[in-house]
Amino acid sequence: MKYVLVTGGVVSGLGKGVTASSIGVLLKACGLRVTSIKIDPYLNTDAGTMSPFEHGEVFVLDDGGEVDLDLGNYERFLDIKLTHDNNITTGKIYQAVIEKERRGDYLGKTVQVVPHITDAIQDWIERVARIPVDGKEGPADVCVIELGGTIGDIESMPFIEALGQFSHRVGHGNFCLIHVSLVPVLNVVGEQKTKPTQHSVRQLRGLGLTPNLLACRSTKELDYSVKAKLAQFCHVPLSNIVTLHDVPNIWHIPLLLKDQKAHEAILKTLNLLSVATEPILKDWTTRTKVHDDFHENVRIAMVGKYTGLSDAYLSVLKALLHAAVAHNRKLIVEWVPAGDLEDVTSKQDPDSYKVAWGLLKGADGILVPGGFGDRGVQGKILAAKYARENNVPFLGICLGMQIAVIEFARSILGLHDTTSTEFDPEAKNPCVIFMPEGSKTHMGGTMRLGSRRTYFQVAECKSSNLYSNVSFVDERHRHRYEVNPDMISQLESAGLSFVGKDETGSRMEIVELPSHPFFIGVQFHPEFKSRPGKPSPLFSGLIAAACEVKRTVMSPSYGQTKLTNGSYNGHSPTLKSHQNGKGSNTTNDSLNGIYTNGNVVYVDGSF
What we know:
Keywords: ATP-binding, Glutamine amidotransferase, Ligase, Nucleotide-binding, Pyrimidine biosynthesis
Shape: globular
Radius of gyration: 25 Å
Protein name: CTP synthase
Pfam families: CTP_synth_N, GATase
Helix content: 25-40%
Largest sheet: 10 strands, mixed
CATH superfamily of the largest domain: P-loop containing nucleotide triphosphate hydrolases
Number of domains: 2
GO molecular function: ATP binding; CTP synthase activity; identical protein binding
Region (Disordered): 564-590
């Protein structure tokens, strides 16, 4: 097994995740099998209990693991299926060591950070690296490890020590360290400054790790003299210093690495030159070149409560992008803060109220993603009501599905007091209830998580057609509440159709409004399994329906456009942010393809 470690220096947010994923793409293009591990030094056991404002979305794996969003990037870039053990946290390591100590596995020894914690980290990496993640038998050829945080962080020290020991454990020729660092350009003099990277590498070397390659982030390509200076002071060969400068979209990153022969430096360090082939990135190159070719757009209103942080809905954005690309459309996402749609906002902040409703009514389709808590719920209900009454394509995910059911029960059944017990535990007439198997005392890992099977109940429903008329689908879940099974007959008699259910037939998974052009809610999260070239069927259906809406309101010259369902041509979407007239905040940086310009955040080619 060969290992590639990616670390970061100077500042956070340099794009280590994109760099690690791009390295994986490049090595996979060389004919190697690749797996990935993300190390997060925080004490949480997993990402499940953290707010999206802390680390962005919680990505859910097939096995129910609630992990860092970077594992979503790995899965999308490399088209693999990871496990919860591919995300290592300080909490997991300490928990495992303490459990061994309680069992007496250490035979009375004093349990210390070195060697017991550091050994546990190394053992974990070796064990997980051998788990196949690409559907083939046997371990991968290369494991790409990303160390979260920045070199020098006190919380990362046990991992730094463990990885230093690990490089000696696996031996020369089996370990390659790539250090991602910043080479800033001072506007005053316009000069690329190497000193931050020099200090970062010196600190890294002082901790027992020596980089084999430097991946330098900068606004423009590094000058030859700058590379020579870094080579001299950082003790890294000139050929092993690559520039990751700002690019129009992140599809360029693997190509940048390839053009600078980063793969040759990595393969040489790992003694793989004789077994690897020249990287084949034809499809990738095509996707990168044509990403700006689409001129017709599709406008989707995203109604949520974390609209000020795009990373909170990262996988949803990627799934929308995959679907838009398949239909030859540029994606424009209108961020609509759910609370701004509510009547109370019309009195407290009429301008925001007017903007929010303007964005919603100007959209070709509406999406209400998952979430927790009661903030903004009434706004989401109003969005679902508007979509239902005005035949606007609608997709509700998890909470979004529950919202759609609540709105229908209130508006059509006349049950004006119906709600979810999540919002009102004492509700007398709830149409969404707490699942009986859930825990009310513990938050972490107690939801209905991971891949679960949904069986179609109606053969010719829209959802079944989108999934190619299969009898069941396996999708990933993350929820504590469900539609009240005691109200199903009442809801269906009024016109709703629960076309997908679990294996028991008592848990609702997919709801449709047959009289509507496209009104679908799903209890699962289809965005987690969407891939470039293989968009989620439900997202593809939403975009297709939204394109139909756009064609009916456009002039005849636009209405003659032909949609190419299922084709993947690659393009750069535009993510347009409106947050009470202000630009939306994001934890991503320009390497991730996100650039801020006034009120608009452009997301170019990110998947």
